[in-house]
Design brief:
The chain is α+β, with helices and mostly antiparallel strands and 382 residues long. The protein is built from 10 helices and 10 strands. Strand 2 (141-144) and strand 3 (148-159) form a beta hairpin. Bound molecules: flavin-adenine dinucleotide.
């Protein structure tokens, strides 16, 4: 069983993330939300602090601190700014997947550049207009040529699509049905024929751009294939196991921020001659939120700990994401209720937090898909 006390190294990473979040992210979060500008400067500072390769070997430019440290750091970052944090999460996922599946050359060429911020961030291009929960329905193709591959198709919903300097792109490479004919490729953001759409107008996480990425006869060399031909689905699923711990941790961070604001507001706000925190009707939702955030934290740490031990963690990562994202949404909603009318306006950040948390139970697998994954693992006897 995991010991839930962080080690010295994990505590150091958590503290570094908190200091960066308070100094760099928090002061910019509101403006980022209003303007929807991509946080290039903050991301460059994140790279300087080693936050773009938290669970990547030091030899490849990473911090090599493990999945538990990653979860702790992501929650700290998301307390301040979910939009910047999701760009950091996806970039970490891209660096990790190359570190895990790449050849020596691919690792040496791309991972240090991702960790160091040379690519700004990495992008993860799996979803398509007709292939969201069901990646096996993708139609983007990669056709083999004498000296490489040619990619043709369109991806959508790509986080950091405006700025990512390197994408992992999934495409169909043979006619096997469903997920069997899919392969993964490393495609530089400046590859001729690659174009990026306009950012979607989203409910929240405005500073994180979400775009289509189109591939019109994009030529990549043979060495761009990540993993084996036809093995791309496995690459995606393994990346998402870790990614889900990241998104759950991100939701936890947003929930913690909303809870802290609700708690302090309840002590300051007076009605009927006393602080509203003295009303049981206010105390109970705060107690529920505190309990649920703690349970989410423990589920996330357990999933991350299993990942660090090299143990299977698909079921635990899905449970942690499902619970953390859905409970964090409830925590944010309750925080608005505690604020009354003041919770519904921009001046008090809980309004942004509710908008920011909503998508966490959609991307990297909806809550319904997490339940499917958990049920599948159950039927396998795990
Ligand atoms: C802001 C944002 C950022 C994103 N970033 C990325 C990114 O960087 N890279 C990337 O590749 N993708 C990204 N996505 C895409 C995201 O992963 C998909 O939106 C998600 O997987 C759901 O796919 P969909 O939107 O097509 O919904 P659908 O798959 O069409 O699902 C619609 C509804 O049906 C339910 N459903 C579908 N299948 C089943 C089933 N078998 N059983 C029960 N219910 C089911 C879903 O749970 C959902 O409620 C992003 C999305 C958003 C909104």
């Amino acid at each position: 069983m995991p010991n839930f006390e962080p080690t010295e190294q994990q505590t150091l990473i958590q503290r570094a993330a908190r200091a960066y979040a308070e100094r760099v992210l928090a002061p910019r979060a509101d403006e980022l939300d209003r303007r929807g500008t991509f946080p290039c400067e903050s991301l460059s500072e994140a790279a300087d602090l080693g936050l773009l390769g938290i669970n990547v070997p030091e030899a490849l430019g990473g911090t090599q601190a493990g999945a538990v440290a990653y979860s702790l750091a992501v929650s700290e970052l998301a307390r301040a700014c979910a939009a910047t944090t999701v760009a950091i999460c996806v970039s970490n996922m891209v660096a990790e997947v190359i570190a895990s599946f790449g050849t020596e050359d691919q690792r040496a060429e791309h991972v240090p550049r991702l960790c160091g911020g040379d690519y700004v961030v990495g992008g993860f291009a799996l979803s398509e207009p007709e292939a969201g929960s069901d990646p096996g329905a993708m139609v983007t193709k990669a056709v083999r040529t004498d000296d490489g591959w040619v990619l043709q198709g369109s991806k959508c919903w790509i986080t950091s699509g405006t700025h990512a300097g390197l994408f992992v792109v999934w495409a169909r490479t043979n006619d096997s049905p469903g997920t069997r004919g899919i392969s993964a490729f490393l495609v530089p953001g400046d590859a001729p024929g690659l174009s990026r759409g306009r950012p979607e107008e989203k409910m929240g996480q405005h500073g994180s751009t979400t775009t289509t990425v189109d591939f019109d006869e994009v030529k990549v060399p043979e060495r761009a294939l990540l993993g084996t031909e036809g093995g791309g689905f496995r690459v995606a699923m393994m990346a998402l196991d870790g990614g889900r711990i990241g998104i759950g941790s991100l939701a936890l961070g947003i929930g913690l921020a909303a809870f802290a604001k609700a708690r302090s507001y309840a002590q300051q706000r007076h009605q009927f001659g006393r602080a509203i925190s003295e009303f049981q009707a206010i105390q109970w939702p705060l107690a529920d939120s505190d309990t649920e955030l703690e349970a989410a934290r423990l589920l996330l740490l357990r999933a991350a700990w299993r990942k660090d031990q090299g143990l299977p963690h698909t079921r635990e990562a899905s449970m942690a994401k499902l619970f953390a994202t859905e409970r964090a949404f409830q925590v944010c909603n309750r925080a608005i209720q505690v604020h009354g009318g003041y919770g519904y306006v921009r001046e008090f950040a809980v309004e942004r937090l509710l908008r920011d948390v909503r998508v966490t139970s959609i991307y990297e697998g909806t809550s319904e898909i997490q339940r499917l994954v958990i049920a599948r693992e159950l039927s396998r006897g795990r």
